[in-house]
Every structure is written in structure tokens, then in C-alpha cells.
Specification:
Elements: H1 2-8, H2 15-24, E1 37-42, H3 50-62, E2 67-72, H4 82-100, H5 110-119
Parallel strand pairs: 1-2
Helix pairs in contact: 4-5
């Protein structure tokens, strides 16, 4: 249960554990992140609430980092819908090509392009 989790990971109610957890948190270490970041989140994720993804994306954006954010309103902790998966893979392909180089598929089927655009979060809306 939760007691085992606190023993293994740390108890946020314990001041010493809280400081260690804070030091390990990407949110509080955003200034150390150097690489571009692409975040994909399922809005129905039972493990990671959307507000946490919104928060790290907002902090990175405010720090001037290159960050892309895709939100699937009909997904959970993984991408189950095939169109969502293909749209995210197309976005990832573009992201990696832009940052690492390499080949890039010129065009994707219209339904994939439309879904990719629908999943893309306009970062200015996170303010």
C-alpha cells in the first residue's frame, strides 16, 4: 500500500524526504534540462494527472526551452486508438528529424495530419 510506497520512494509529509523528492523532480530541475522535449499525455491517465504535464510544459516554455505538447483527450496512460498512435508517431518523427536530423516522411494521410493538429496543444493556452 501507500506505506510501502513511502518507504521505497519517499514520504512527502517527511521534511527530509520532501526535500529529496523536490531535488529529484523535473519540475524543480527545469533549469537543468538542455534537450528539446516532446510531451504526450492522455487526458484520462489514472497515474499522471494532466495538470502535471501542463505544469512542466509551462515551466519549460517560460524558461525558453523548445517544448512540444500533445494531449489526447480520449486516452489514458498509453495510446490505444490507432489514429492517435499514428498521429503521435508522425509528430515524433518530425520532432526527431528537426532535432537530430535524418529522414522524414513527406506527407501522412489526411486523417493522421488532422488528428496530429487536433492533439497539438498551443502552448500559449497554458498561461
Amino acid at each position: 500500500g501507500i506505506a510501502r510506497w513511502h518507504r521505497r520512494v519517499g514520504d512527502p509529509e517527511d521534511p527530509e524526504d520532501r526535500e529529496r523528492l523536490k531535488a529529484q523532480s523535473p519540475l524543480f530541475s527545469a533549469n537543468r534540462i538542455r534537450a528539446p522535449l516532446m510531451v504526450v499525455h492522455g487526458a484520462n491517465d489514472p497515474r499522471v494527472v494532466q495538470a502535471e504535464s501542463d505544469q512542466i510544459v509551462r515551466v519549460l516554455r517560460e524558461a525558453g526551452h523548445d517544448v512540444k505538447y500533445y494531449l489526447a483527450p480520449d486516452e489514458g496512460h498509453g495510446l490505444v486508438d490507432e489514429t492517435n498512435r499514428l498521429a503521435v508517431m508522425a509528430a515524433l518523427e518530425d520532432f526527431l528529424a528537426n532535432h537530430l536530423g535524418g529522414r522524414l516522411q513527406d506527407a501522412h494521410p489526411q486523417r493522421i495530419e488532422e488528428r496530429r493538429e487536433a492533439l497539438r496543444v498551443e502552448l500559449s493556452t497554458l498561461d
